[in-house]
Amino acid sequence: MAVQGDNRKFILSLLFVGYMVSYMDRLVMNLAVVPIGQEFNLSPAATGTVISAFFLAYAIMQIPAGWLTDQLGYRRVIIFSIVLWSLFTVFTGFAWSFTALIVIRFLFGIMEGGYPAACAKAIAEYFPQKEKGKAQSILMSSNSFGGLITGVLVPTLLIWLGWRNVFFALGAAGVIIGVLLWKYIRSPIQLEEAKEQQPVNKDSMLSLLKIRQTWALVLTWFSVSIASWGTSSWLPMYMVTERHLDLVSAGLLGLLPTTAATLGTAAGGWLLVRFSGREKMYFLMNGLFYTVFLFLALFAPNVGMVFTYLTLSSIFYGFVFSAVYALPHKLFDKSVIGSAIGIMNLGSMIGGFIAPIMMGVLISALKGSYDGAFWFLIAAGLSAALFGLTIRNSNHVSHGDVADQIQSNVKVK
Length: 413
Known about the structure:
This protein has helices at residues 5-40, 44-72, 74-92, 98-112, 115-126, 129-161, 163-184, 188-193, 202-207, 212-241, 247-253, 255-274, 279-298, 303-331, 337-365, 371-388, 401-412. With 413 residues, it is an all-alpha fold. The chain has a single domain, classed as MFS general substrate transporter like domains (Growth Hormone, Chain: A, Up-down Bundle), CATH 1.20.1250. The radius of gyration is 20 Å and the shape is globular.
């Protein structure tokens, strides 16, 4: 059953908006934590814990979510995920203590955890092989668009409405998007292929963990996530407390690197095609440029140079970000794509969990100095470039090799 081009674009648009809302729901905490910290009198370590609670839960959910997506289909996982995470976004606005905030954000992370793998599965089913990488790159650029909207609207809304009402509004928007996805998302390809495909069982999913290519992507994305989430989680607080900007100014200036990341992410899928067979060089080159400009930004002498270098580093971050999600469509069979993305996201979210809380600990240990925390981010960025060298070039891996190896492992058992 053929899927028409216009329908594919419409489905991609709905998934894009859903991803954008999910990113806003998690990113808003990086800004809201300033008034939240003041209201609950949080230390830097406690502030980092609030941010990291989401990442821990999100990481825990990645492998189960990937497996469930391959078993149940992406439609159910997408709809349940977006509706339930939106409800917990609303519940965040009702938090009455530090402990309640931690618990709610943890449950929010659990509910949001299924969306990435389910979206990747939808891309794998709706798009032909030659278009999957570009479609995935476009989808992942939604994160940067969500960052743009967050930077423009949220700082002002936090001042006008208060942080609780901002979470109420975002939760309501997510529920509306969930209803639209329930109404329009269908799986026309899956109906035809269900008769020919055997579902991927638990043994098959776990077999992905035995493949070197999986771990190369996981470790690369783990390191990038430490650097990127550590920067984005603490940059608003740093700009307000150390560079003496107000929250609105910090949010508006943050649009520059966010815009750069949007462009880099959107172009990353196209650029990766030009580096086909040279993926190692792609990840090493972009990882090094990202790290160099991140170093210059974190130790820049003035605010203008901070955001100039952050903007440049964000372009190369976007290149790496989109490629990490596009490459699995080239290397893995679509029967295991949900599980593969889930495993990759596990590495990413472990990095996202470690970064904010570790930075908070380092800042507290150094009596308010950010230097140790910044060097921690630089080391993570450099590690990402080095781990990129372990990724096998695509001319050494034919499409379906991973799936064949998985099925072979299962038969041996």
